[in-house]
Amino acid sequence: MSESFVIIGDGIAGSSAAETLREEAPDADITVITDEGEALYNRILIKEFAKGKLPEAPISIHDDGWYEERNIDLELNTLVVDIRVDEHEVETHEGDVLGYDKLLLAVGGTPQQLPVEGSDADGVHHFWTFQDARRIRESAESAEEAVIVGAGLLGIDLAAICGAQDIAGKYLMRGNSWWRYALNEEGAEIMHEAMRERGVEPVFDSGVDHFETDEDGHVTAAVDPNGDRYEADFAGVAIGLNLNTELVEDTPIETDDGIVVDQYMQTIDEDVFAAGDITRFHDVILGEQAQNGAWGSAKEQGTIAAKNMLEYGAAEFRWVSSYSITHFDFPFLSFGHPTLGDDEVMRSFGDDEWRRLALKDGKIVGGVLIGNLAPQSAYKQLMREQVDVSGQKDILMTEGFSVDDLGVEDAAAE
Ligand SMILES: Cc1cc2nc3c(=O)[nH]c(=O)nc-3n(C[C@H](O)[C@H](O)[C@H](O)COP(=O)(O)OP(=O)(O)OC[C@H]3O[C@@H](n4cnc5c(N)ncnc54)[C@H](O)[C@@H]3O)c2cc1C
Hints:
Bound molecules: flavin-adenine dinucleotide
CATH class of the largest domain: Alpha Beta
Helix content: 10-25%
Keywords: FAD, Flavoprotein
GO molecular function: oxidoreductase activity
Domain FAD/NAD(P)-binding: 5-284
Cofactor: FAD
InterPro entries: FAD-bd_OxRdtase, FAD/NAD-bd_sf, FAD/NAD-binding_dom, FAD/NAD-linked_Rdtase_dimer_sf
CATH superfamily of the largest domain: FAD/NAD(P)-binding domain
Strand content: 25-35%
Number of domains: 3
Largest sheet: 5 strands, parallel
């Protein structure tokens, strides 16, 4: 009998796993289950749709025919509500039960709501799905004033949507700068200035105490903890993701703000794997558990998981993740784990170029480049090869840095 694979989630992690399984196991039974109403689309591009810059069509990646051609059973609008690992079966919201030999959890996360009054009002948006993007675009097209909350990589997308839709925005941040865990004030100021140029004003030491609404339940303003009131007929909230671990709560599968897997994407149950944003994986570069929230990483984890579901140990996940911001007329790239580490080095080059590297035990574990991405491959190479760069921090920050600039002995990979 052919082996059966069930994949929960048709995001990039689940879908690339299905693709790899079919390529490497022509006779396998493969089922992909998603609670969304559409097959894989490009989640990275939905912000361009919400900005009004792209139509729907180019955002879709797979149509139903893609699955039919590969003899992959795609179940849309189907929520998996229970996993029974002893019986090797999953149950859907309609009570259907599917058996599996190997199961992949590629279930991602769900945006967190602000725990404040009015956060479920009409016009207050969270951003994860194509459906969210459709609602955001519709609401943004008629809005005049907005507040954005969440000083991170998704919050800035919402700010850019306001800019592109000619909405006067106030970007309410808790601290004194955007993404303060990865940037210092100088680096963040380049981003603040770019927001201001697009009509979005950063407001520091702020946040939301509560939203005000009109009698129809539509948002009208946000009031911050200082009592300052910001009128808004549109609000965008991006304060983080709740990873969808509740599915495995009643199983022995280990969770730790994510589903814990090894470098082969296997959970502690040998027949259950996980891939994509949902994982807390053993990062072989970092030498500890880590999490990524990026498209390229999720795609690679899906592929790696599939290979190991077919033959455990076939391929390990060794990856330097990247995340770029393309809203402005200068480039921005974050790579690796820029918020981790025990040391750092950073430098400004004039008013519009800045870079920072995060180091752990003398080795690069992540970084952020603003304005000039030329050294990115050198930094990523050093990170991937776990080169000890301690004692050479100044050289790392030279303008045209290349790996050859490092002292040969120190640059020897371990
Ligand atoms: C607006 C936006 C912009 C982004 N921009 C970038 C960017 O520029 N660069 C970058 O690298 N990354 C970006 N990301 C992050 C990137 O999109 C994610 O890291 C990536 O899509 C994660 O893929 P995934 O397959 O792990 O999870 P997801 O894409 O979240 O897929 C998980 C799927 O599982 C489904 N699911 C969950 N539970 C169940 C269940 N019980 N039953 C059935 N189905 C279920 C979900 O509905 C979802 O469809 C962005 C994300 C967003 C939202």
